[in-house]
Amino acid sequence: MNGISIILTLLSGVALFLFGMSMMGDGLKRVAGNKLELVLYKLTSTPLKGILLGTAVTAIIQSSSATTVMVVGFVNSGMMKVAQAIGIIMGANIGTSVTGWILCLSYIDGSSGIAQLLSTATISAVVAIIGIIFKMFVKKTTYKNVGDIMLGFSILMVGMQTMSGAVSPLKESSYFVNLLTTFENPFMGILVGIAFTAVLQSASASVGILQALSMTGSISFAASLPITMGIGVGAACPVLLSSIGTNKNGKRTALIYLLNDLFGMIFWSIVFYTVNAFVHFPFMDMTMRPVTIALMNSVFRMATILVLVPFIGLIEKFVFWLVKDDPEELEDQADFDLLEERFLAYPALAITQSHTAMNGMAKKARKNLSRSFALLKDFSQEKYNKIQEKENLIDKYEDKLGTYLMQLTGQPMNSTQTQQVSEFLHTLSDFERLGDHAVNISKVALELAEKKISFSESAQYEIGVLSSSIREITDLTVDAFCTDSLEMAKKVEPLRELIGMLCNELKNRHITRLREGKCEFQQGFAFNDLLTNLERVAAHCSNVAVAMIETNSSEFDTHEYVKSVRHMRDEAYQECFNAYAEKYNIAAPEKNEKSEKKENKEAKKAK
What we know:
Elements: H1 3-32, H2 35-42, H3 47-61, H4 64-77, H5 82-95, H6 98-103, H7 113-117, H8 120-137, H9 141-167, H10 174-182, H11 186-200, H12 203-214, H13 221-234, H14 236-242, H15 248-279, H16 290-308, H17 312-322, H18 327-337, H19 347-377, H20 381-408, H21 415-450, H22 457-483, H23 486-489, H24 492-515, H25 521-552, H26 558-568, H27 571-583, H28 588-606
Helix pairs in contact: 1-9, 3-5, 4-5, 4-14, 4-15, 5-15, 5-16, 5-17, 8-9, 9-12, 11-13, 12-13, 12-16, 13-15, 13-16, 14-15, 15-16, 15-17, 19-20, 19-21, 19-22, 20-21, 21-25, 22-24, 22-25, 24-25, 24-27
Keywords: Cell membrane, Coiled coil, Membrane, Transmembrane, Transmembrane helix
Organism: Laedolimicola ammoniilytica
Region (Disordered): 588-607
């Protein structure tokens, strides 16, 4: 068999192995449903529990990277803390070594009797037959998923046999044997392990190939140990890639996976090779077999975790030092820290803390709206991503505040406190919706940028005027809520009414432009989406203001208030409305244009 055939057969074996492992892992996850995820983030109260869970889950899904990527997602979403994730990641490092023991089954062979019954060919055939029966002929979904697991296992075994068969002729090659001896240099072996695993994106696949190579009888302990050390570091690549786009805690979690294996590689390299320099271990030249490689891999990983467990607290501090929080993120966390469960027994204090946290949420929603308006004028992917990231934070505020306030309703409170909590629960969803509309506006900006759509000058001016009025109404609403100012809250509804009238007028104007051919339909859809979102922003601001006034007026009737300000129009309301109408006059540029033309005509006549 020539070199090209060996490489192609080896790669086909790797492909079958990876596909089989993926199919088996996916089947196992479907059988378990969401239980694996629930177990991961609910039962991690102590490092030991985390390690055991990480080991068990990784042994089930056959991928430490998949387990860690899942944990990165939990930490990124705020469901799990970085400290909880450390134990699970350590366990994942141990659990991934189980695959090596499973792969040892593929090397069981025999020519007769029980040995023949336990051969790889027999096991794979039986499992594949049962698996395809479950997959094709059984209607129950659970059995179909079990069929996927069994078929995945069979494909994995065939892949291992293919890899083993591909490299078996190499035992006769003196060049190959000499090449392997270079890996006995620890530095070279570690580099090969890192590079190989980084390319394959799977520690299990790298160990499987090493086990296949060991069947040539050319792999010594001295060569396999540094490669095994490097494999752990290389396996961090897919985890680090998964952290792209996550928040700081997500990046810290991914970094923990790398640091665990990096520390193990450095620590045991120094200890083992220093001792060997004096003692000269007799087993360095021992020929490795699949079982001894699986054993070495498991021992190395367990020894590393045993050394690291006492330093979990230091590891957490170290990753926080490597990936530092910026002042804005520290401020966000400070808001969440205000919602201390011990304060629930003291409603007055809990309400104050909730109000402060909601102030932070309201300001962030306002800031995101401001970002979306800026995106309409100057689009950039970085700014767009920032809006989506902050929307996740606003959603997190709603989740934490909503849970906290609902817990607070179970405490004994007076009527004023009950009204305050009710107000917060109502306005909470309105502030969250402001964030949603900021995202919607950013998507309009994305569509405009991707399709290279631009509005006419008159449409741009109109959007500018409307955006200014939206900025003012959000400023009024947020400032009124943060300072408990009823005077400011009462100015919101007149502006909301004007914004509604502006939106209707702008829709009519844009329809006219479409009829006259000054704008295209693509522009029309985007313009209409924009107006709808801006009008809804004003409506949510009105909801917040009305809730504030209702809470602060013991004899206040919401319906009567809305009816009064919208229909009866008292003097203060009318005065406020007129001031806004003059300030946000969309007819201004047309008037200016007419007066400019008149001046030009008069100038020509004068000449």
